[in-house]
Amino acid sequence: MNRDIQRFKQYQYDVLIVGGGINGAAIAHMSALNGLKVALLEKGDFASGTSSKSTKLIHGGLRYLENLELGLVRESLRERAVQLKSAPHLVHPLKFIIPVYDSDKRPLWMMKLGVGLYDLLSGKYVIERHRALGADEICRLIPGIKRQGLLGGIMYTDAQMNDARLCLENVLSAAEKGAHVANYAKVNSFIREDGKTVGAHARDELTQKPFEVRARKIVCAVGPWTNLLMKDERGLSPSPVRPTKGIHIICKGRVCEHAVLISTQKDQRVFFIIPWMGNSLIGTTDTDFAGDPDHVKVEQEDIDYLIAEAKRVFPDANFNQDQIMASFAGLRPLISEPGAPARVSRKHVIKQSYSGLIYVMGGKYTTYRKIAEDVLRRLTDQPLVNTRESFPVYGSGSLREDVNALGQEYQIDPVIIRGLVDFYGIRVRDILNLTKTQPALKAPICSCCSVILAQIVYAIETEMARTVDDVATRRLLIGYQSCATGECRRTIRSALAKAGH
Ligand SMILES: Cc1cc2nc3c(=O)[nH]c(=O)nc-3n(C[C@H](O)[C@H](O)[C@H](O)COP(=O)(O)OP(=O)(O)OC[C@H]3O[C@@H](n4cnc5c(N)ncnc54)[C@H](O)[C@@H]3O)c2cc1C
Q1: 3-state secondary structure of 5
Q2: What mean pLDDT is predicted for residues 55-64?
Q3: Which residues contact 68 (CB under 8 A, 6 or more apart)?
Q4: Average pLDDT for the chain
Protein backbone atom coordinates (compact mmCIF):
# COMPACT_ATOMS: atom_id res chain seq x y z
CA MET A 1 0.00 0.00 0.00
CA ASN A 2 1.04 3.53 -0.73
CA ARG A 3 2.18 5.80 2.11
CA ASP A 4 2.83 8.78 -0.18
CA ILE A 5 2.58 11.87 2.03
CA GLN A 6 2.72 14.29 -0.93
CA ARG A 7 -0.75 13.34 -2.13
CA PHE A 8 -2.42 14.55 1.10
CA LYS A 9 -1.73 18.16 0.07
CA GLN A 10 -3.47 17.77 -3.25
CA TYR A 11 -7.00 16.95 -2.16
CA GLN A 12 -9.98 18.45 -0.42
CA TYR A 13 -11.15 15.36 1.50
CA ASP A 14 -14.68 14.63 2.63
CA VAL A 15 -13.27 13.41 5.93
CA LEU A 16 -9.93 13.45 7.72
CA ILE A 17 -9.60 10.87 10.49
CA VAL A 18 -6.94 11.42 13.12
CA GLY A 19 -5.79 8.22 14.87
CA GLY A 20 -5.20 4.77 13.40
CA GLY A 21 -6.36 2.59 16.27
CA ILE A 22 -9.35 0.32 15.72
CA ASN A 23 -11.88 3.15 15.86
CA GLY A 24 -10.07 5.42 13.38
CA ALA A 25 -9.32 2.45 11.12
CA ALA A 26 -12.95 1.28 11.10
CA ILE A 27 -14.29 4.80 10.52
CA ALA A 28 -11.89 5.19 7.58
CA HIS A 29 -12.92 1.79 6.23
CA MET A 30 -16.65 2.48 6.53
CA SER A 31 -16.30 6.01 5.13
CA ALA A 32 -14.47 4.70 2.07
CA LEU A 33 -17.05 1.93 1.71
CA ASN A 34 -19.71 4.65 1.53
CA GLY A 35 -17.91 6.52 -1.22
CA LEU A 36 -16.37 9.32 0.85
CA LYS A 37 -12.94 10.69 -0.01
CA VAL A 38 -10.96 9.77 3.10
CA ALA A 39 -7.62 10.66 4.69
CA LEU A 40 -6.37 8.74 7.75
CA LEU A 41 -3.32 9.89 9.73
CA GLU A 42 -1.71 7.90 12.55
CA LYS A 43 1.20 9.34 14.50
CA GLY A 44 2.88 5.99 15.20
CA ASP A 45 2.14 2.63 13.68
CA PHE A 46 -1.45 1.50 13.10
CA ALA A 47 -2.73 -0.13 16.32
CA SER A 48 0.34 0.95 18.26
CA GLY A 49 -1.89 2.60 20.91
CA THR A 50 -4.51 0.72 22.92
CA SER A 51 -5.63 -1.37 19.95
CA SER A 52 -2.74 -3.85 20.23
CA LYS A 53 -2.77 -3.91 24.05
CA SER A 54 -6.20 -5.39 24.71
CA THR A 55 -7.12 -8.75 26.24
CA LYS A 56 -7.97 -9.75 22.66
CA LEU A 57 -11.56 -10.69 23.39
CA ILE A 58 -14.58 -9.97 21.25
CA HIS A 59 -17.12 -10.32 24.01
CA GLY A 60 -20.26 -9.01 25.62
CA GLY A 61 -18.35 -8.48 28.85
CA LEU A 62 -19.84 -10.72 31.50
CA ARG A 63 -18.71 -8.41 34.25
CA TYR A 64 -20.65 -5.40 32.89
CA LEU A 65 -23.82 -7.23 33.95
CA GLU A 66 -22.84 -6.39 37.52
CA ASN A 67 -23.07 -2.69 36.57
CA LEU A 68 -26.50 -3.45 35.05
CA GLU A 69 -25.31 -2.34 31.59
CA LEU A 70 -27.67 -4.72 29.85
CA GLY A 71 -27.93 -2.55 26.71
CA LEU A 72 -24.15 -2.43 26.27
CA VAL A 73 -23.80 -6.18 26.82
CA ARG A 74 -26.59 -6.97 24.35
CA GLU A 75 -25.10 -4.62 21.74
CA SER A 76 -21.63 -6.16 22.24
CA LEU A 77 -22.98 -9.70 21.92
CA ARG A 78 -24.64 -8.74 18.67
CA GLU A 79 -21.40 -7.20 17.41
CA ARG A 80 -19.57 -10.37 18.47
CA ALA A 81 -21.71 -12.29 16.01
CA VAL A 82 -20.94 -9.77 13.25
CA GLN A 83 -17.20 -10.07 13.92
CA LEU A 84 -17.23 -13.89 14.00
CA LYS A 85 -18.95 -13.85 10.63
CA SER A 86 -16.98 -10.97 9.09
CA ALA A 87 -13.41 -11.92 9.96
CA PRO A 88 -13.28 -15.65 10.76
CA HIS A 89 -9.51 -15.75 10.16
CA LEU A 90 -8.97 -13.24 12.99
CA VAL A 91 -11.90 -13.87 15.36
CA HIS A 92 -12.55 -17.36 16.79
CA PRO A 93 -14.89 -18.80 19.42
CA LEU A 94 -13.14 -19.54 22.72
CA LYS A 95 -14.46 -21.48 25.71
CA PHE A 96 -14.15 -19.97 29.18
CA ILE A 97 -14.25 -21.70 32.55
CA ILE A 98 -15.19 -19.83 35.73
CA PRO A 99 -14.04 -21.74 38.82
CA VAL A 100 -15.86 -20.57 41.96
CA TYR A 101 -14.32 -20.94 45.46
CA ASP A 102 -15.92 -20.76 48.88
CA SER A 103 -13.90 -17.58 49.57
CA ASP A 104 -15.10 -15.74 46.43
CA LYS A 105 -17.32 -12.68 46.86
CA ARG A 106 -19.59 -13.78 44.04
CA PRO A 107 -21.24 -17.09 45.03
CA LEU A 108 -21.75 -19.93 42.55
CA TRP A 109 -25.49 -19.29 42.19
CA MET A 110 -24.82 -15.66 41.29
CA MET A 111 -22.27 -16.61 38.64
CA LYS A 112 -24.69 -19.15 37.19
CA LEU A 113 -27.42 -16.52 37.09
CA GLY A 114 -25.07 -14.04 35.42
CA VAL A 115 -23.93 -16.45 32.70
CA GLY A 116 -27.56 -17.55 32.16
CA LEU A 117 -28.52 -13.90 31.62
CA TYR A 118 -25.51 -13.51 29.29
CA ASP A 119 -26.78 -16.36 27.11
CA LEU A 120 -30.28 -14.90 27.23
CA LEU A 121 -29.01 -11.51 26.08
CA SER A 122 -27.10 -13.24 23.26
CA GLY A 123 -30.46 -14.50 21.97
CA LYS A 124 -30.04 -15.99 18.52
CA TYR A 125 -26.38 -14.89 18.51
CA VAL A 126 -25.37 -17.30 21.27
CA ILE A 127 -22.26 -19.28 20.23
CA GLU A 128 -22.82 -22.26 22.54
CA ARG A 129 -24.99 -22.32 25.64
CA HIS A 130 -23.22 -22.38 29.02
CA ARG A 131 -23.14 -25.44 31.25
CA ALA A 132 -22.46 -25.99 34.93
CA LEU A 133 -19.31 -27.86 35.94
CA GLY A 134 -18.62 -29.84 39.10
CA ALA A 135 -15.37 -29.39 41.00
CA ASP A 136 -13.99 -32.74 39.75
CA GLU A 137 -14.68 -31.88 36.12
CA ILE A 138 -12.98 -28.50 36.52
CA CYS A 139 -9.89 -30.22 37.96
CA ARG A 140 -9.88 -32.58 35.00
CA LEU A 141 -10.24 -29.75 32.45
CA ILE A 142 -7.72 -27.46 34.17
CA PRO A 143 -4.85 -29.55 35.49
CA GLY A 144 -3.04 -27.83 38.36
CA ILE A 145 -5.99 -25.74 39.54
CA LYS A 146 -6.40 -25.52 43.32
CA ARG A 147 -8.92 -28.10 44.56
CA GLN A 148 -9.28 -26.84 48.11
CA GLY A 149 -12.42 -24.72 48.51
CA LEU A 150 -13.49 -25.23 44.88
CA LEU A 151 -17.30 -25.41 44.79
CA GLY A 152 -17.84 -25.87 41.06
CA GLY A 153 -18.09 -23.55 38.12
CA ILE A 154 -19.44 -22.73 34.68
CA MET A 155 -18.28 -23.09 31.11
CA TYR A 156 -19.41 -20.53 28.54
CA THR A 157 -18.26 -19.41 25.08
CA ASP A 158 -17.05 -16.01 23.85
CA ALA A 159 -14.54 -15.03 21.15
CA GLN A 160 -10.84 -14.29 20.85
CA MET A 161 -9.25 -12.07 18.19
CA ASN A 162 -5.99 -10.78 16.84
CA ASP A 163 -6.35 -7.10 17.78
CA ALA A 164 -3.36 -5.59 15.93
CA ARG A 165 -4.14 -7.39 12.69
CA LEU A 166 -7.89 -6.71 12.83
CA CYS A 167 -7.07 -3.01 13.09
CA LEU A 168 -4.52 -3.26 10.27
CA GLU A 169 -6.96 -5.12 8.03
CA ASN A 170 -9.49 -2.31 8.48
CA VAL A 171 -6.79 0.15 7.37
CA LEU A 172 -5.91 -2.01 4.37
CA SER A 173 -9.59 -2.33 3.43
CA ALA A 174 -9.97 1.44 3.66
CA ALA A 175 -6.95 1.94 1.38
CA GLU A 176 -8.21 -0.67 -1.06
CA LYS A 177 -11.47 1.29 -1.31
CA GLY A 178 -9.61 4.50 -2.10
CA ALA A 179 -8.75 6.04 1.29
CA HIS A 180 -5.37 7.73 1.62
CA VAL A 181 -3.76 6.35 4.77
CA ALA A 182 -0.43 6.99 6.47
CA ASN A 183 1.24 5.78 9.62
CA TYR A 184 3.97 7.89 11.22
CA ALA A 185 2.02 11.04 10.32
CA LYS A 186 1.20 13.17 13.35
CA VAL A 187 -1.45 15.89 13.56
CA ASN A 188 -0.03 18.74 15.63
CA SER A 189 -2.82 21.33 15.37
CA PHE A 190 -5.92 22.20 13.41
CA ILE A 191 -6.51 24.80 10.71
CA ARG A 192 -9.42 27.07 11.65
CA GLU A 193 -11.14 29.52 9.34
CA ASP A 194 -14.08 31.66 10.51
CA GLY A 195 -14.32 29.57 13.68
CA LYS A 196 -14.60 26.29 11.74
CA THR A 197 -12.00 23.54 11.61
CA VAL A 198 -11.13 22.97 7.95
CA GLY A 199 -7.94 20.94 8.13
CA ALA A 200 -4.88 19.94 10.08
CA HIS A 201 -1.20 20.77 10.31
CA ALA A 202 0.61 17.47 10.32
CA ARG A 203 4.17 16.15 10.17
CA ASP A 204 5.72 13.15 8.52
CA GLU A 205 7.44 11.58 11.52
CA LEU A 206 9.87 9.66 9.29
CA THR A 207 11.23 12.72 7.45
CA GLN A 208 10.18 15.42 9.95
CA LYS A 209 8.58 17.33 7.04
CA PRO A 210 5.38 19.28 7.82
CA PHE A 211 2.31 19.08 5.57
CA GLU A 212 -1.32 20.21 5.55
CA VAL A 213 -4.50 18.23 4.99
CA ARG A 214 -7.86 19.86 4.25
CA ALA A 215 -11.22 18.19 4.78
CA ARG A 216 -14.91 19.01 4.99
CA LYS A 217 -15.22 17.05 8.27
CA ILE A 218 -12.60 15.95 10.77
CA VAL A 219 -12.90 13.05 13.21
CA CYS A 220 -10.57 12.61 16.18
CA ALA A 221 -10.33 8.94 17.09
CA VAL A 222 -7.24 9.31 19.23
CA GLY A 223 -8.44 7.27 22.22
CA PRO A 224 -6.33 8.05 25.32
CA TRP A 225 -4.79 11.09 23.57
CA THR A 226 -8.20 12.84 23.31
CA ASN A 227 -7.67 15.24 26.23
CA LEU A 228 -4.35 16.39 24.73
CA LEU A 229 -5.69 17.01 21.25
CA MET A 230 -8.81 18.87 22.35
CA LYS A 231 -7.24 21.14 24.94
CA ASP A 232 -7.95 24.29 22.84
CA GLU A 233 -11.49 23.25 22.00
CA ARG A 234 -14.52 25.30 23.05
CA GLY A 235 -17.89 23.70 23.72
CA LEU A 236 -16.69 20.46 25.31
CA SER A 237 -15.75 19.63 28.88
CA PRO A 238 -11.98 19.99 29.43
CA SER A 239 -11.06 16.34 30.14
CA PRO A 240 -13.82 14.14 28.76
CA VAL A 241 -11.65 11.01 28.72
CA ARG A 242 -10.54 9.13 31.83
CA PRO A 243 -7.59 6.95 30.81
CA THR A 244 -7.21 3.81 32.91
CA LYS A 245 -4.21 1.53 32.60
CA GLY A 246 -4.39 -2.20 32.02
CA ILE A 247 -1.40 -4.50 31.77
CA HIS A 248 -0.90 -8.08 30.59
CA ILE A 249 1.90 -10.57 31.05
CA ILE A 250 2.62 -13.54 28.81
CA CYS A 251 3.87 -16.61 30.64
CA LYS A 252 5.51 -19.60 29.00
CA GLY A 253 3.16 -22.51 28.28
CA ARG A 254 -0.62 -22.94 28.60
CA VAL A 255 -2.40 -23.84 31.84
CA CYS A 256 -5.37 -25.17 29.89
CA GLU A 257 -6.82 -25.20 26.37
CA HIS A 258 -9.70 -23.00 27.56
CA ALA A 259 -9.61 -19.50 29.03
CA VAL A 260 -10.05 -19.21 32.80
CA LEU A 261 -11.90 -16.30 34.45
CA ILE A 262 -10.81 -15.68 38.03
CA SER A 263 -12.15 -13.35 40.72
CA THR A 264 -9.38 -11.46 42.52
CA GLN A 265 -9.19 -11.57 46.30
CA LYS A 266 -7.55 -8.17 46.71
CA ASP A 267 -10.18 -5.98 45.05
CA GLN A 268 -12.92 -8.34 43.84
CA ARG A 269 -12.29 -7.68 40.15
CA VAL A 270 -12.13 -10.39 37.53
CA PHE A 271 -9.19 -11.22 35.30
CA PHE A 272 -8.32 -13.85 32.71
CA ILE A 273 -5.71 -16.50 31.98
CA ILE A 274 -6.08 -17.08 28.26
CA PRO A 275 -4.34 -19.48 25.88
CA TRP A 276 -2.57 -17.32 23.32
CA MET A 277 -0.07 -18.44 20.69
CA GLY A 278 0.84 -21.52 22.75
CA ASN A 279 1.39 -19.49 25.93
CA SER A 280 -0.74 -17.88 28.67
CA LEU A 281 -1.92 -14.29 28.40
CA ILE A 282 -2.69 -13.07 31.92
CA GLY A 283 -4.53 -9.82 32.60
CA THR A 284 -5.64 -7.32 33.19
CA THR A 285 -5.37 -4.53 35.76
CA ASP A 286 -7.49 -1.37 35.88
CA THR A 287 -5.97 1.74 37.47
CA ASP A 288 -6.32 5.47 36.80
CA PHE A 289 -3.51 6.96 34.72
CA ALA A 290 -2.68 10.66 34.80
CA GLY A 291 0.63 10.66 32.89
CA ASP A 292 1.61 11.10 29.25
CA PRO A 293 -0.13 8.40 27.15
CA ASP A 294 3.09 8.05 25.11
CA HIS A 295 4.86 6.74 28.20
CA VAL A 296 2.50 4.22 29.75
CA LYS A 297 4.45 1.23 31.00
CA VAL A 298 4.20 -1.96 33.00
CA GLU A 299 5.23 -1.44 36.64
CA GLN A 300 6.55 -4.19 38.89
CA GLU A 301 3.57 -3.79 41.25
CA ASP A 302 1.18 -4.52 38.33
CA ILE A 303 3.07 -7.75 37.61
CA ASP A 304 3.18 -8.73 41.30
CA TYR A 305 -0.59 -8.24 41.56
CA LEU A 306 -1.32 -10.51 38.58
CA ILE A 307 1.16 -13.20 39.62
CA ALA A 308 -0.13 -13.25 43.22
CA GLU A 309 -3.75 -13.61 42.09
CA ALA A 310 -2.92 -16.25 39.45
CA LYS A 311 -0.85 -18.26 41.94
CA ARG A 312 -3.71 -18.23 44.42
CA VAL A 313 -5.71 -20.39 42.00
CA PHE A 314 -2.72 -22.18 40.41
CA PRO A 315 -0.42 -22.66 43.44
CA ASP A 316 1.99 -24.98 41.64
CA ALA A 317 2.12 -23.21 38.27
CA ASN A 318 5.34 -21.49 37.40
CA PHE A 319 4.13 -17.93 36.80
CA ASN A 320 7.33 -16.49 38.21
CA GLN A 321 9.31 -13.59 36.83
CA ASP A 322 11.63 -15.85 34.82
CA GLN A 323 8.63 -17.38 33.03
CA ILE A 324 7.36 -14.03 31.77
CA MET A 325 8.15 -13.83 28.05
CA ALA A 326 6.65 -10.39 27.46
CA SER A 327 4.40 -7.79 29.04
CA PHE A 328 2.53 -4.79 27.73
CA ALA A 329 0.46 -1.87 29.04
CA GLY A 330 -2.41 -0.01 27.41
CA LEU A 331 -4.84 2.76 28.28
CA ARG A 332 -8.62 2.49 28.11
CA PRO A 333 -10.04 5.73 26.73
CA LEU A 334 -13.07 5.65 29.05
CA ILE A 335 -15.52 8.51 29.26
CA SER A 336 -15.04 10.56 32.43
CA GLU A 337 -17.29 9.27 35.18
CA PRO A 338 -16.82 9.07 38.92
CA GLY A 339 -16.29 5.76 40.73
CA ALA A 340 -13.76 2.93 40.67
CA PRO A 341 -12.16 2.42 37.22
CA ALA A 342 -13.65 -1.06 36.83
CA ARG A 343 -17.15 0.37 37.38
CA VAL A 344 -16.85 3.06 34.68
CA SER A 345 -19.07 2.35 31.69
CA ARG A 346 -17.48 1.04 28.48
CA LYS A 347 -20.12 2.72 26.30
CA HIS A 348 -19.01 5.07 23.54
CA VAL A 349 -19.85 8.73 23.09
CA ILE A 350 -19.51 10.94 20.01
CA LYS A 351 -19.30 14.69 20.53
CA GLN A 352 -18.95 17.63 18.21
CA SER A 353 -17.14 20.82 19.23
CA TYR A 354 -18.17 24.38 18.25
CA SER A 355 -15.54 24.33 15.54
CA GLY A 356 -17.07 21.19 14.02
CA LEU A 357 -14.51 18.59 15.15
CA ILE A 358 -16.06 15.21 15.90
CA TYR A 359 -14.57 13.32 18.85
CA VAL A 360 -15.03 9.60 19.52
CA MET A 361 -14.59 8.54 23.12
CA GLY A 362 -14.98 5.40 25.22
CA GLY A 363 -16.18 2.17 23.68
CA LYS A 364 -14.80 -1.33 23.45
CA TYR A 365 -12.87 -3.02 20.71
CA THR A 366 -15.84 -5.37 20.30
CA THR A 367 -18.17 -2.55 19.29
CA TYR A 368 -15.92 -0.91 16.70
CA ARG A 369 -18.29 -1.50 13.78
CA LYS A 370 -21.16 0.14 15.68
CA ILE A 371 -18.94 3.06 16.70
CA ALA A 372 -17.93 3.59 13.05
CA GLU A 373 -21.58 3.41 11.98
CA ASP A 374 -22.61 6.01 14.58
CA VAL A 375 -19.83 8.34 13.39
CA LEU A 376 -20.79 7.84 9.72
CA ARG A 377 -24.30 9.11 10.49
CA ARG A 378 -22.67 12.41 11.44
CA LEU A 379 -20.59 12.49 8.27
CA THR A 380 -23.22 11.90 5.63
CA ASP A 381 -26.99 12.19 5.15
CA GLN A 382 -26.93 9.45 2.52
CA PRO A 383 -28.21 5.97 3.44
CA LEU A 384 -25.26 3.82 4.55
CA VAL A 385 -24.12 0.55 3.03
CA ASN A 386 -25.58 -2.07 5.36
CA THR A 387 -22.85 -3.58 7.56
CA ARG A 388 -25.14 -4.77 10.35
CA GLU A 389 -24.78 -8.42 9.36
CA SER A 390 -21.25 -8.37 8.01
CA PHE A 391 -18.37 -5.88 7.75
CA PRO A 392 -15.64 -7.90 6.02
CA VAL A 393 -11.99 -6.88 6.32
CA TYR A 394 -9.02 -7.27 3.98
CA GLY A 395 -8.49 -11.04 4.36
CA SER A 396 -12.18 -12.01 4.73
CA GLY A 397 -13.80 -14.49 2.37
CA SER A 398 -13.58 -18.18 1.68
CA LEU A 399 -10.63 -19.85 0.05
CA ARG A 400 -11.34 -22.03 -2.95
CA GLU A 401 -8.35 -24.33 -2.37
CA ASP A 402 -7.55 -26.34 0.73
CA VAL A 403 -4.16 -26.05 2.43
CA ASN A 404 -2.89 -29.31 0.92
CA ALA A 405 -3.64 -28.13 -2.61
CA LEU A 406 -1.88 -24.83 -1.90
CA GLY A 407 1.05 -26.73 -0.37
CA GLN A 408 1.33 -28.81 -3.51
CA GLU A 409 1.07 -25.81 -5.81
CA TYR A 410 3.69 -23.72 -3.99
CA GLN A 411 5.81 -26.61 -2.66
CA ILE A 412 5.43 -25.42 0.93
CA ASP A 413 4.60 -27.53 4.01
CA PRO A 414 0.76 -27.45 4.47
CA VAL A 415 1.31 -26.80 8.20
CA ILE A 416 2.98 -23.50 7.31
CA ILE A 417 0.18 -22.72 4.86
CA ARG A 418 -2.40 -23.39 7.61
CA GLY A 419 -0.64 -20.80 9.79
CA LEU A 420 -0.64 -18.31 6.91
CA VAL A 421 -4.36 -18.80 6.25
CA ASP A 422 -5.11 -18.20 9.95
CA PHE A 423 -3.21 -14.93 9.71
CA TYR A 424 -4.04 -13.59 6.27
CA GLY A 425 -7.33 -15.28 5.31
CA ILE A 426 -7.88 -15.21 1.56
CA ARG A 427 -4.83 -12.95 1.11
CA VAL A 428 -2.63 -15.99 1.70
CA ARG A 429 -2.05 -16.12 -2.04
CA ASP A 430 -0.47 -12.63 -1.95
CA ILE A 431 2.25 -14.00 0.33
CA LEU A 432 2.60 -17.30 -1.51
CA ASN A 433 2.93 -15.54 -4.88
CA LEU A 434 6.01 -13.71 -3.60
CA THR A 435 7.72 -17.11 -3.33
CA LYS A 436 6.97 -17.91 -6.98
CA THR A 437 9.41 -15.31 -8.26
CA GLN A 438 11.75 -15.60 -5.25
CA PRO A 439 11.76 -19.19 -3.91
CA ALA A 440 14.29 -18.15 -1.22
CA LEU A 441 11.39 -16.38 0.54
CA LYS A 442 9.96 -19.78 1.52
CA ALA A 443 12.68 -20.14 4.17
CA PRO A 444 11.81 -19.64 7.87
CA ILE A 445 13.15 -16.37 9.28
CA CYS A 446 14.66 -18.11 12.30
CA SER A 447 14.72 -21.52 13.99
CA CYS A 448 12.42 -20.25 16.79
CA CYS A 449 9.24 -19.84 14.74
CA SER A 450 7.44 -20.91 11.58
CA VAL A 451 7.27 -17.41 10.04
CA ILE A 452 8.71 -17.35 6.51
CA LEU A 453 10.72 -14.57 4.85
CA ALA A 454 7.89 -13.74 2.43
CA GLN A 455 5.84 -12.50 5.40
CA ILE A 456 8.45 -9.88 6.24
CA VAL A 457 8.52 -8.66 2.63
CA TYR A 458 4.72 -8.53 2.62
CA ALA A 459 4.67 -6.62 5.94
CA ILE A 460 6.97 -3.98 4.46
CA GLU A 461 5.62 -3.75 0.91
CA THR A 462 1.89 -4.16 1.47
CA GLU A 463 1.23 -3.64 5.18
CA MET A 464 3.26 -0.43 5.54
CA ALA A 465 5.55 -1.67 8.34
CA ARG A 466 8.48 0.72 8.82
CA THR A 467 10.26 -0.44 12.00
CA VAL A 468 11.37 -3.75 13.51
CA ASP A 469 8.62 -3.42 16.10
CA ASP A 470 5.95 -2.82 13.45
CA VAL A 471 6.91 -6.11 11.82
CA ALA A 472 7.68 -8.20 14.91
CA THR A 473 4.96 -7.00 17.27
CA ARG A 474 1.98 -5.90 15.18
CA ARG A 475 2.31 -7.72 11.80
CA LEU A 476 3.75 -11.11 12.82
CA LEU A 477 3.26 -11.15 16.64
CA ILE A 478 6.64 -12.84 17.16
CA GLY A 479 7.59 -9.95 19.44
CA TYR A 480 5.56 -11.71 22.14
CA GLN A 481 7.60 -14.90 21.96
CA SER A 482 11.15 -15.47 23.09
CA CYS A 483 13.87 -15.92 20.50
CA ALA A 484 17.09 -17.25 22.05
CA THR A 485 19.39 -16.01 19.29
CA GLY A 486 17.87 -12.67 18.27
CA GLU A 487 17.94 -13.91 14.67
CA CYS A 488 14.28 -12.88 14.10
CA ARG A 489 14.95 -9.22 14.77
CA ARG A 490 18.22 -9.25 12.80
CA THR A 491 16.45 -10.69 9.76
CA ILE A 492 13.67 -8.10 10.00
CA ARG A 493 16.19 -5.28 10.41
CA SER A 494 18.12 -6.29 7.31
CA ALA A 495 14.90 -6.67 5.26
CA LEU A 496 13.88 -3.15 6.29
CA ALA A 497 17.31 -1.80 5.37
CA LYS A 498 17.16 -3.57 2.00
CA ALA A 499 13.79 -1.89 1.35
CA GLY A 500 15.33 1.50 2.20
CA HIS A 501 13.75 1.98 5.64
C1 LIG B 1 -5.81 -3.50 29.04
C2 LIG B 1 -6.96 -3.38 28.09
C3 LIG B 1 -7.68 -4.50 27.73
C4 LIG B 1 -8.75 -4.39 26.86
N5 LIG B 1 -9.39 -5.53 26.46
C6 LIG B 1 -10.43 -5.44 25.61
C7 LIG B 1 -11.05 -6.63 25.15
O8 LIG B 1 -10.62 -7.75 25.44
N9 LIG B 1 -12.13 -6.49 24.33
C10 LIG B 1 -12.62 -5.28 23.98
O11 LIG B 1 -13.64 -5.23 23.29
N12 LIG B 1 -12.01 -4.12 24.36
C13 LIG B 1 -10.93 -4.19 25.16
N14 LIG B 1 -10.27 -3.05 25.53
C15 LIG B 1 -10.72 -1.76 25.01
C16 LIG B 1 -10.20 -1.52 23.58
O17 LIG B 1 -8.89 -2.04 23.42
C18 LIG B 1 -10.21 -0.03 23.27
O19 LIG B 1 -11.52 0.46 23.49
C20 LIG B 1 -9.84 0.28 21.82
O21 LIG B 1 -8.65 -0.38 21.44
C22 LIG B 1 -9.65 1.79 21.67
O23 LIG B 1 -9.34 2.05 20.33
P24 LIG B 1 -9.09 3.55 19.85
O25 LIG B 1 -8.95 3.50 18.38
O26 LIG B 1 -10.12 4.45 20.41
O27 LIG B 1 -7.73 3.98 20.57
P28 LIG B 1 -6.21 3.63 20.21
O29 LIG B 1 -6.02 2.25 19.79
O30 LIG B 1 -5.36 4.10 21.35
O31 LIG B 1 -5.93 4.54 18.95
C32 LIG B 1 -5.72 5.93 19.02
C33 LIG B 1 -4.60 6.25 18.06
O34 LIG B 1 -4.50 7.65 17.90
C35 LIG B 1 -3.15 7.94 17.62
N36 LIG B 1 -2.91 9.38 17.84
C37 LIG B 1 -2.91 10.02 19.03
N38 LIG B 1 -2.64 11.33 18.83
C39 LIG B 1 -2.47 11.51 17.49
C40 LIG B 1 -2.13 12.63 16.69
N41 LIG B 1 -1.95 13.83 17.22
N42 LIG B 1 -2.01 12.45 15.36
C43 LIG B 1 -2.20 11.22 14.78
N44 LIG B 1 -2.51 10.12 15.52
C45 LIG B 1 -2.64 10.27 16.86
C46 LIG B 1 -2.39 7.04 18.58
O47 LIG B 1 -1.06 6.84 18.20
C48 LIG B 1 -3.23 5.79 18.56
O49 LIG B 1 -2.72 4.80 17.69
C50 LIG B 1 -9.15 -3.12 26.36
C51 LIG B 1 -8.41 -2.00 26.72
C52 LIG B 1 -7.30 -2.13 27.54
C53 LIG B 1 -6.47 -0.93 27.87
Answers
A1: helix
A2: 94
A3: none
A4: 95
CA–CA dist 204, 210 (Å, integer): 6
Which residues contact ligand 1 via a Cβ below 6 A? 18-24, 41-44, 48-51, 53-57, 186-187, 221-225, 229, 246, 284, 330-333, 363-366
In sequence order, which residues have a C-beta less than 8 Å from that of residue 58 and are 6 or more positions away? Answer: 79, 80, 83, 84, 91, 158, 159, 160, 161, 365, 366
Contact (CB, 8 A) for 365 and 54: yes
pLDDT digits (tens, 9 = 90+) for 435-450: 999 999 999 999 888 9
Q: Contacts by 437-441 with C-beta closer than 8 Å and gap 24+?
A: none
CA angle 366, 23, 341 (to 5 degrees): 65
Residue 435 alpha carbon to ligand 1 centre in Å: 35
User: Residue 113 C-alpha to ligand 1 middle, in angstroms?
Assistant: 32
User: 456 CA distance to ligand 1 centroid (A)?
Assistant: 25
Domain 403-498: state its class.
mainly alpha
Average pLDDT rounded to a whole number, residues 297-318? 94
Q: Summarize pLDDT for 182-232 with one digit per residue, the tens.
A: 999 999 999 999 999 999 999 999 999 999 999 999 999 999 999 999 887
For the segment(s) 5-50+164-238+345-379, the CATH number from 3.50.50.60, 3.30.1180.10, 3.40.225.10, 3.40.50.720 is 3.50.50.60
- Name which of 81-85, 197-201, 335-339, 374-378 the model is least confident about: 335-339
